[in-house]
Amino acid sequence: MTEHVSSAGILFVVSAPSxxxxxxxxxxxxxxxxxISFSVSVTTRAPRNGExxxxxxxxxxxxxxxxxxxxxxxAEWAEVHSKRYGTLVSTxxxxxxxxxxLVLDTDTVGAFNIRxxxxxxxxxxxxxxxxEALEDRLRKRNTESQEMIEKRLNAAPGEIRxxxxxxxxxxxxDFDHAVDCLTALITAEKLKSDRILPQLTSWRSAIDGL
Length: 210
Prior knowledge:
Blueprint: E1 10-15, H1 22-30, E2 36-38, E3 42-43, E4 58-59, H2 62-70, E5 74-80, E6 83-88, H3 89-97, E7 101-105, H4 108-117, E8 122-127, H5 131-141, H6 146-160, E9 168-171, H7 175-190, H8 193-196, H9 204-207
Parallel strand pairs: 1-7, 1-8, 2-7, 3-4, 8-9
Antiparallel strand pairs: 3-6, 5-6
Helix pairs in contact: 1-7
């Protein structure tokens, strides 16, 4: 497997049941930081209307995806609804080497696989306030069949059971409050002492006790 790099960059892995509002929250939070980027996943599914290769996803053939698996290029990958999605180690390393903030959007299995390769990853779970609220949001989206809605609702309890193993849980009940919470935790991670101390060169003698 491709070796990963430790650096001053921050890796956030965000998961949520479908319909919890994760994408809307992240889109709003991204407006508040100038050093944050979204990891572009590799997928074997076809582009949807409006999606751009290299921006929304990297669209590849099954042959190319298989080669990435064989070469150990993925930090994690999974099959979802008969299509495969993966996160390249090189994508993560490039961001961390540059000291940026990288956000990955994965399911719970992917999140824990990322943590195995990148123990410093910060895992964030976006939770709907209740099962009823989740179902209501899925139906109001009016973008999926009844069968797909039922699949997503049936998958939600298993995802919710993984919440205790995440570093942070943001409940998306009030949207603006959830945005504030997600913004605050990103800011808090950026202000941790091991990230700030290297920048305080003018205080180096005091810090070192000289």
